[in-house]
Amino acid sequence: MAKQTLKERLAADQDTALRSRDEIRLRTIRSLRAAIQTQEIAARKGTDVSLDDDAVLAVLTKQAKQRRDSIAQFEDAGRNDLVDNEQAELDIIEGYLPRQLSDTELETEVKALIAELGVSDMSGMGRVMGQAMGRLKGRADGKRVQAAV
After folding, report:
1. 36, 9 in Cβ contact below 8 A?
2. What is the pLDDT of residues 105-144, one digit of tens each?
3. Which one-letter DSSP state was computed for residue 129?
4. DSSP result, 38-78
5. What is the Cα–Cα distance from 149 to 135, expressed in whole angstroms?
6. What confidence tens digit (pLDDT) does each residue in 17-51 have?
């Protein structure tokens, strides 16, 4: 049996959430599928385009980042009711993302990359960042990678 794509998994999970009447999961998955479809429409140039798993993963990562930003803003405004809602959606989205690296794992990866590239001062930071973002794509947020570099 072929491995299920992220899009297929989202569709199957949406059906399950609908049957089990899990409103938060259903709403979240619908919004993710809508974001994926929007991205596919934007990528179209007269032909049908279906995003591969890497592109779907990028959309999901962007959606997770939006939820994190919203949580921070709602916390600053003291809107805990909205924080709880956004956190529930973020937890669902993170279930589809690869496991995030811990701070220790991230630091180890960055140190190894710096040694591999032979960078010894801040002038090579751009090169390290470019390589690090490529290698750690989906496993660490850009802000965390930048802080580690």
Report:
1. no
2. 888 888 888 888 777 777 777 888 888 888 887 777 778 8
3. H
4. HHHHHH-SSS-----HHHHHHHHHHHHHHHHHHHHHHHHTT
5. 13
6. 999 999 999 999 999 999 999 888 887 776 667 77
- DSSP assignment letter at 25: H
Please name which of 5, 110, 15, 109 lies closest in space to residue 60, comparing C-alpha atoms.
5
Q: Using CA atoms, how far apart are residues 120 and 96, in angstroms rounded to an integer? A: 37
Contact 149, 132 (CB under 8 A): yes
Q: pTM for the complete prediction? A: 0.73
Question: CB within 8 A of 51, min separation 6: which ones?
Answer: 7, 36, 39, 40, 43, 59
